[in-house]
Each structure stands twice: as C-alpha cells, then as structure tokens.
Input
Amino acid sequence: MSAFDAIVVGQRVLNAESEALSQLSESLGDSFVRAVETLFDAKGRVVCTGIGKSGHVARKIAATLASTGSPAMFVHAAEASHGDLGMIGQGDVVLALSKSGEARELSDSLAYAKRFAIPLIAITAMADSQLGRAADILLLLPDAPEATAEVNAPTTSTTLQMALGDALAVALLERRGFTASDFRVFHPGGKLGAMLRTVGDLMHDHDELPLTREAAPMSEALLMMSEKRFGAVGVVAPDGTLSGLITDGDLRRHMDGLMSHTAGEVMTRAPLTIAPGALAAEALKVMNDRRVTVLFVVDQKRPVGILHVHDLLRAGVI
Output
C-alpha cells in the first residue's frame, strides 16, 4: 500500500468515527442526566464490566472515574460468574458495556444486579437486547457502521463507548466540584503529578529568601544577591510587604553610580509575584509568558518564598 493510500484509509476511519461521535453528542438527553445523577448519588463504587473489547473500554472508564474522585473498579464479566460477583455490593452502581447487548457472559451480572436492586446503567447499541431491557438507565449508542465495515471489527463502537465514558466522568467530576488540587491527590507521580504540585511545595523559604530593606545601600543588596544565588533580591517595605525586586537588569540600568543608590532607588516596583497555593503549571506559564526565571511568592503581599525556573526543572514540571 502506498503512503497516499494509507493516508486515505486513515482519513476515512477518522472521518467515520468523527461523524459517529457527532451523532452521539446530539443524542444525549435525559438518560445521560439520570446516569450522572445516579453515579453522583452512589454510596459505594461504580462497577464497570464488559467482555472482549468492551471489557477493555470498561477497565479504562473505571480507571478514569477513580482518578477523578469517583470510587470505581472493573469486574471482568466472565470472572463475575466465578466468584467476583461478591465484589459488587449494596450502594454500588453497575455500568455495563456491550455493543450488541447480548454477550452471554453478562447474564449473571445482570441477574445479580436485579436480584439485589443494584442500579444498572447500560452502554449498548441495541435497545431491545438483553442488556438494554435489563438496564435501569440506557445510554444508547448511535447506529453507526464500524470503520472496518467488511470485517466488522470493533472500531467506531469502542470509540463511542470510550467517549461516552469520558463524558460521564467529566460531567460527574464537575457535578462533584472536583478541582485540580483534588486531582493532584490522586496523581502524585510523573509529569502530571509534578504539574499539579503547588508553588508552596517547591519554593525556597525562611533563611533561603534573598531580602533586603528599601533603605539598604546597594552594597548590602548586592551581597544578599551573591549569597543567595537566585540572581535577584526582594526589597521589603517598612511594613513587611514586598515593594520591589532587583535583578541583573536593574543593575545594568543603574550601572553609573550604582553604589551610591539605595535598594529602593534601584528596584523595579510592583514586581511579578505568585501565591503559594498556585499550581506549578501556573507558575511555569507565568514565567514563560513574562520571560522571567524567578518569582517571589507572597501571602497577603508579604514575601514567604522564592521560586526559580530550576526548581520547576528539578521537579519534572518542564
């Protein structure tokens, strides 16, 4: 197959799946709202189940829900019939996936949910299927062809299932008022965890702070800059608030007669600052947008820390 042919095939698949996703978006209605509210009201966990490719999608949906503040787990439909049904209890909600809705491996899970009055949300393309009829809430997939029409392999259908799972997770996340700070608790490691750490986690504070007085001679300010090695010194007003900042640029602008000035005369007033509760990702954006390498961290206008771009680099944010 030529490169041109491969691109054509790829575009055909993506266009087919994109069209199906648009149909799914337009079809969302009251059942989606009821599904979100049922998941929100659950006292236990969201138990995601399925078989085959739908099972793989169900496992991913469970992971997404769990990482966004909704206790969730995956139960393999076949294993459920051999003891894992005991993992499903009162207060849980079952989210079952099957394109045809006729996967026989789901039968025991459906019967179990009915027997113990456990809410059942179904994601299927067939409303009149075993799964569709058993569901308390039916999320119906549009009648869209698979991208591999000749062999009918799960492609478009699994994309729709995945997207609908994401839609449920995000709607539930916003329904809960889940914040980036909450998200950080579940993602302490890796690049994502680093981006979600706060400035207060990474900043230098206390004795590491390069600070001087407005009335201090520049000889004292330069000594502080050299000692702390951040390439900057904060200038503090008599009331303890941060009134200015001296950087290498300020030194160059006042090179003539520099040592005859005070820190207050050389400083740049109203410097760029950030709060200790801000995310590291936010600090990185500020640094990139304003082309600075250091930020003073203030609380009620008082300096409590300093953050250097190297701190973000060491933490894995960059």
Remarks:
- The first helix runs from residue 3 to 27.
- The CA atoms of residues 110 and 134 lie 7 Å apart.
